[in-house]
Structure formats: structure tokens, C-alpha cells
Amino acid sequence: NSVSRALMSDSSDVVYRMSPDWREMRYLQGKDFIADTDNPSESWLQRYIHPDDQEMITTAVTIAIANKTVFELEHRVIRVDGSLGWTHSRAIPILDGNGEIVEWFGAAHDVSDRKQSEQTQQLLLNELNHRVKNTLASVHAIAQQTLRTSPDPSAFATGFSGRLQALSRVHTLLTSSNWEGAELHAIVRDQLSIGATGDDRITVIGPPARLNPQASQHMAMILHELGTNSLKYGALSNATGLVSLGWSLRDARLHLDWREKAGPPIKTPLGRGFGTRFIETVAKGEGGTAMMSIEDGGLNWEIVLPLASANASFASSSNSPADRAHPETATQIQLPTISGKTFAIIEDEPLIAFNIASILEQEGARVAGPALSVTDALRLIEVSELDGALLDANLRGDGVGDVAAALIRRNIPFAFVTGYGREALPAKFASARLLTKPFTEQQLLKTAIEIVDQDDSVLRYRASGRE
Fold first, then answer.
1. What's the N-to-C CA distance of the chain in angstroms?
2. Is residue 310 pLDDT above 80, yes or no?
3. What per-residue confidence (pLDDT) applies to 141?
4. Which partner from 3, 230, 282, 435 sits 20 to 30 angstroms from 98, CA to CA?
5. Nearest C-alpha neighbor of 165 from the set 81, 121, 224
6. 330 pLDDT exceeds 70?
7. pLDDT attached to residue 6
């Protein structure tokens, strides 16, 4: 006892003594980290240990007692001030002459700073993983949509390369600001300088405006589509055409006007290619609007975006099913179908939402959304008749537990779509269906089929030879 007391006094660690069965804590010197225990106590587990760690400790103690081996564990503790800390605890059994345990003597070291550092590092790695996968999913979406609208391999290579370079350039801008945002003037200069035939043909007027990282990427892609289309078909495709780009900030919204003059004659009605649909989808995904028109023989775009995307308004759309039959399979199995089914797309990245919608619609499905925030998603679920939903596991930094719960209350089957991985799902839904970004068209369709045909769809899908 004298030796143990000396160790207790000299050590900077928490030291403690436990009864043979650990039912009673006989002594604890907390060293101002956790509260002292001068008198024997049987409530030590509830007093000192975080509720979520109590079962883990009890299990480790049971094993140590049964084997008469050292107890060693890292776990959370309740500190003197009521906050949570982390400790590395180690206790050895004291045996009598017959080899029976008479007491446990232990010491615990405060490892809160290290655990905090590890948790911060893990959060950063998770966020990096999410950003990389989201970027890969965006690139994959660009590739798929460019391929769908390209008449030949050469056109695909040109279109895909240009869009990829536009995304790369805005990433460079954002990196220079530690991903805090980018100035609209800088984005315009960066995107419209590529391929433009001279500064005197493009007039740019607008006040300073700083966009957040996501809005910066979307604006860059919009400007790339406007500039590329003008070079191919519009005012910048001849020697006399002019483009004016101006914007203003009114009512917490960015109002952007793109106007082309003196270009070649415009064919009407106007076609709706990838660029047009992409601009409309991205603006809508940011909670804004995009309208194309012809005035004085020139093409005009009026684009309105909220400066605070968190206040984006709810938007939904419904499209007619497309006629596309599935090929016959060798086994003549009737494939499950999503034709005529309505899916909610709950996704805060418009390009990914656009790609999901395009793939589902070509299979004859209808689409509601996209909803880009928790509020939008809850409203969409409330007002729509849905057969299924594809739910991003994180919307503008907010968790989606309430959205998943709302889908379950309305008996709407769904799958999480995320770049974080299963560990990022709400705890109550950790075993839910999951589609990981980036995904292929086949993976998306397989998941959609499973959502609306949950019984034996997986077996039938595999038997069809489409996976």
C-alpha cells in the first residue's frame, strides 16, 4: 500500500484502485482531470464514463477478470468541468498467494489532445474524400452528357476536353483563395479568354461580387457553355459579332445578362442541346432561374442566382417518359422497369442531379426536383407522389436524418447517394441502401430498380446480363 500510495502521489496520471470484480472503485486521484473518489463508490461507471462507452468498458473488464490479465483501453471520460475527455487507461490485477485477484491497480493518462487531433484529421480526410469523389462524379456526369450529345468521337473529345478545362481553371482560382470563393470578374476573365477572338468583341460590366466555391464552379461552367456556344453558332462565330456581359446585385440576388449582336442568323425554334439544358439546370440547382430569348436578331440569356444559396427556392419538374425498350436477354427474363415511376432527386450538386435525371428519364422514369437543401427536400416529399428517392447523404453541410425519416413515414423507398461512404450515413440508417459516388449509369439504374422493385430485382437484374 505504501508503494502504491507513493506512485499515486508522484505520478501525473490519474490513478485508481478497483475491487476484484470491479463493482467498487475504492480510490481515485483525478489530478484535476476527473473528480477524485476518496470513499469507495459503486456508481463510478455512471459518474465517470460516457454512456456510449460503458458497454465497451464492461466487456473489456469481464475479459480481463476472467483471464486475470491486464485491462487496457482508450475511452471517453466525464471531466471535472462536465466536458468530455479521452483517457488511455491500464490496470493490473494484484494476486494473493493462491493466485486470486484481491484488487486492481490502475493508471490513466489524458490523451484528449491527441484524440482531438486524430478526429480533426479524420474529418479533414473524410471531407477530402467527399470532395474528390464529388468532383469525380461531376467529371463523370460531364463525360456522360457530352457523349450523349456528340455526333462523333472528335466532337466528344473537343466538348469533353473544353468542359474539363473549364472545371480545372476554376479549381485553380479557388485553390489560390484556399477554397474560400472567387471573384466573378476573375471567373469571367478566366473562362471567356479561352477561344475569344479579341477583348474588343466582349464587353464586361459589373460590380465586385464574390461567389462561394460551389457557386463559383457553377458560374464557370455556365460561362464556358455560353462562350463555347457563341464561338460555334453565335456572335463570336463570325467577324462582326459582339457579346456584352453585365450583372448587377439586387435584393440579395445576382442578375446576369448575356447579350449577343451581329452574329449569324438564328434558326428558330431554338434547339435545346446540352449547353442550354445544363445552364437551366445549374441555375435552378442554385435556387435561381435562366431564360433564353432572341432580341434584335441576337441571342440573350438572363440568369438570376441567389447570393446566399441556402435560401434557394424549391423547384420540381416532371418530364414525359421516353420510348426506349430494353434489349431481349438470352434467358427471356422480364426485366423490372422504372418506366412511369417518379423519383425524387435530392442532391445539392446540380451537375450530378442533372446527370441522374437524364439517365432516369431516358429509361422512361419521371423526376421530381432536384431539391438541394433539407428544407426543399422535406417540402418536395410532402407535396409529391413519389415511387422512390435518391438522397445525397449531406446537403449543403447539413445532415439528412430528418429527410430519410420523412421518406420512411410516407413509405417511400430510397437510397443514399454519397461520396463520403457508409460511415457518413445517419446512425439510424447505417444499413440503408447506398450508391457511392462516382457511379456508372448501370449502377444508378440497378439502384433505381432495387428501390421500386425490392423483392427479387437484384437477381433478375444480374440474370439479364446488364451488370
1. 69
2. no
3. 80
4. 3
5. 224
6. no
7. 44
Q: How many CB atoms within 10 Å of residue 384?
A: 18
